[in-house]
Amino acid sequence: QGVYNFAQMEAKWPAVWDDLKIFTPLDDGSKERRYVLDMFPYPSGDLHMGHAEAFAMGDVMARYWRQQGFDVLHPIGWDSFGLPAENAAIARNAHPSEWTYANIDTQAASFRRYAISVDWSRRLQTSDPEYYRWTQWLFKRFYERGLAYRKNSPVNWCPKDQTVLANEQVVNGACERCGTQVTKKSLNQWYFRITEYADRLLNDMNELKGHWPERVLAMQRNWIGRSEGAHVRFVIEATHDQPEHEVPVFTTRPDTLYGATFFVVAADAPLAEQLVTAEHSRTLIEYREQVKKLSEIERQSTEREKTGVFTGRYAVNPLNGEKLPVWAADYVLADYGTGAIMAVPAHDQRDLDFARAFALPVRVVLDTGQDDPAVSGVAATGEGILVNSGELDGLAKDEAISAAIGILQRHGTGEKFVNFRLRDWLLSRQRFWGTPIPIIHCGACGEVPVPDEQLPVTLPADLRGEDLSPKGTSPLAAAEAWVNVRCPRCEGPAKRDTDTMDTFVDSSWYFLRFTSPEFMGGPFDPQKANQWMPVGQYVGGVEHAILHLLYARFFTKVIHDMGMLDADEPFSALLNQGQVLNGGKAMSKSLGNGVDLGQQLDKYGVDAIRLTMVFAGPPEDEVDWADVSPSGSVKFLARAWRLGNDVTSVVGADPASGDRALRAVTHRTIADATELMKQHKFNVVVAKLMELVNATRKVIDAGVGGADPAVREAAETVAVVLSLFAPYTAEDLWNRLGREASVANAGWPAVDADLLVRTTVTAVVQVQGKVRDRLEVSPDISEDELRTLAMASGPVAKALDGRGVRTVIVRAPKLVNIVPA
Ligand code: ANZ
Ligand code: ZN
Q1: Could you tell me the superkingdom of the organism this chain comes from (predicted)?
Q2: What's the pLDDT tens digit per position in 380-405?
Q3: Among 603, 653, 663, CA closest to 629
Q4: What is the pLDDT of residues 452-468, one digit of tens each?
Q5: What is the ipTM of this complex?
Q6: Annotated binding site
Q7: Which of 76, 588, 726, 769 lies at a 20 to 30 A Cα distance from 191?
Q8: What is the average pLDDT across 149-173?
Q9: Is the CB of 250 inside a 6 Å radius of any atom of ligand 1?
Q10: Does ligand 1 come within 6 angstroms of the Cβ of 379?
Q11: CA-to-CA distance for 255 and 181, rounded, in angstroms?
Q12: Distance, CA 190 to ligand 2 centroid (Å)?
């Protein structure tokens, strides 16, 4: 009879699955294709609890679609370039590849143990020369299309660490690592012209609505930041020491032009320096020093007292000829719009705060019925009718916007303009462990791309340890034999570009390579890519909601425009799994609340951990490890598996003569599970499965028991549905039922609609004593299952309205009462 022993199963089945190659897609068109992809991991150490959750979710989808008869592509690879490998190499006096590939091997072994159903033959690593050859090839195609370019631009620079810092690494004007005052330094940097795709990146999100989490779409929309308005050109009058200048501003409110009472340029923009008169130059320079020390976040804070200096210049309002003093201030950003604004204090809060700080006039030009902003200190931002505005008087706001643009256009002093917050993508890094930029700089020819047949430009193998530490230029610059080359065009002496690419470039096209990982004729075989793309289900963390997803969408669109791919969106559906917490907080070393995945797997087994992750709640929700019960999962799995001890009917026995009530539960379970899978309610599928196991056990323990063919039907259904969540237990159960491996491609059972007539009871779900939902459940439902079903109810969530839960009282099968916190 045997007892449930997960270690034995984990030792037995992987070799069988390998032999059957069930997770390698046929890729021959005999079945409809589906592509399921988990965001590929970064090889830092071994897998952790977060991986365990994310990959459980993706695997459930892949296994479900396989059961539904699709040819499923579910691959895995590693995003294996990046800074941590480089830091580890410096610390250990090693080459980054040593650390990287050792970690990849560790993770690969853990993924195998974790039984994710991937096609191992497609495995790729972005740091493999055979992969980054094509990253370089794509970079060249972007370059040829004018979508990759180099320009001189200021970067945050830590003089002590001799390195470029991202904005997030500058804290109170100081280096996050060493506390040294950060300065700005001008560097030649490579950019991708993603701004050229801003409109399409925004508009095509309409196709993703309903298939991507709304919050991710909102974050992307906000990041792209489309604003409709106008460019208005102001003439800055000449002074005795300065010529006349023309400066455009971007405004969303050209209707308020008559309310402009001053003009502001970003203090740190070159423009401020150009405009300032000799008399005011010193004050400006001192002020700029002060501004440089502030972080981006501080600068944009509305809490902070407004600061600024007068430049000695006056701007002429193109609509009414009025002269406005020109100020330099830090609340205007150098790299947004044109870096200059017309200030309308009556109707813009930031301008009003500034006007009050420097006693500048406030003029209302829109009658909104609000209190006088000059007195109240609150800008009138509502709708209204134009006043004090000459020819615009009497118009409503929107009419006035069009009218003002019309006047500006007729006078040639402005026009309609759509501005985007999105910036071009700075892709070059002064680091070693990344894809080398395939460009050669020649004194005579300038930038010369490395010819395709000379790709990949591989990283020099002899740099290690200290050689890699940041020096202000890329560590690659030190590899003289590597740097000094002949110009491919004129054969003269030339130098390789020593920067490497942002690792986001590597991850912007890996999903295409998976469709034909061995392809030698290009980054991917267009025929294969067209057969598999777009990815039908992408799974990954919300931390990638903006950059990775936006960049991958950009790459896909460019590759589409190159004629290599039919799809112009990479991921038709996206699932963000929740974080794994412990005690309500993210696991971290400093809190000491980390949970080691390996230890959990040793103690409870792979299946129990996978099941626990899935059963904890909807996949999007956080999983708090302090609240879950892996041992409860083990108990359930053992109970399911023990059905195999008792089924005595032969394989293929006709269930028609069997226990009708049990058959009804079986078919109801299949029908519900099918529907629930569509809605990604995996946890509720598990709850249903628990009911089915209980119902089956009841029949076994009574009457004809395990000889009833309906019991076999139920047990086989348990095995198939369980195979999505607990592959080892499901396979073992299937085997003990006398069926041949693998349960993974047994096929989803068909529902007999005649059996769906209900034999259920109605459970009432109350929130704070008020009935919020009624659930049709099996009379045998356990307290746990009923609780899970109740907590998954939409009306309950609505009634809770984001409140936590204090207690849940469950009286199975009739009542659940939820008391909110
Ligand atoms: C005059 C005005 C009057 C404005 C008014 C607003 C309200 P969004 O919607 O975010 O695009 N602006 C323009 N460039 C700026 C910069 N570099 N730094 C700070 N602020 C800048 O915002 C556009 C508005 O933000 C513009 O419209 C401009 O102020 C300001 F009643 O112009 B507005
Ligand atoms: Zn040359």
Answers
A1: Bacteria
A2: 999 999 999 999 999 999 999 999 99
A3: 603
A4: 999 999 999 888 888 88
A5: 0.98
A6: 589
A7: 76
A8: 79
A9: yes
A10: no
A11: 43
A12: 20
